[in-house]
Amino acid sequence: MQFLRSFGYSFAVFALVAAFSAVSFAQDRDRVVERTTPASPTQNPAVKKRPPLTNKLIVQSESPIKKTASSRPVGAPAATTSSAKKSTTYMAATTRSMMMDSIRAKLGIRYRYGSSGPNTYDCSGFVWKVFNEAGIGMTRTSARSFWNTFEPVYGDARYEFGTLVFFNKLGHVGIVAGPEGFYHASSSKGITYSKFAGYWEKRIVGFRRVPIQQPVWNPEDLDQ
CA dist 213 to 79, 89, 133, 134, 216, Å? Predict the structure, then answer.
């Protein structure tokens, strides 16, 4: 009987110690807490991501279009430049060449009133001689008579080579060289070239043309 009491008392003590150890172990063990984070919008396929806000204005430019048609109205004439000029038809190249040869041969010869060469010339005598040596027949007379005999000329044609130009109330005449000047028998310089600009342009009376019959080209001339 005494043995049973001792065994029961020992079993109770053992049970009490075991229970106390279990409680202590549970208190000393690290607590593990599972933390859950909310799913981000990108992880949830049902949530669409909104674009970030910005103050920058994006403008889409139009694509370049190549022009394939002219802006000029249909049927309108093409533009022409002011530099385009009609070629001279006053005299043939052969006639011009013969006149220039005559003029060059006389440059520097002294002036003498009423003279027609070959050592001295006045203005009308010089003009008559040049045309005569180029094969153009005309009467030797005064500058005023040339003015009254030949037809007037206007516009750009006035400044074509070979046109006659008159000055000083029809008291002087020369041969136009081009838009810039003319050849004449000057009382101070003899046969010379002078520019229109300056002294002479203020004294111009007008222009006349000597009628010239253009030579007819004959193919048989090549065989001679």
Answer: 36, 11, 15, 12, 9
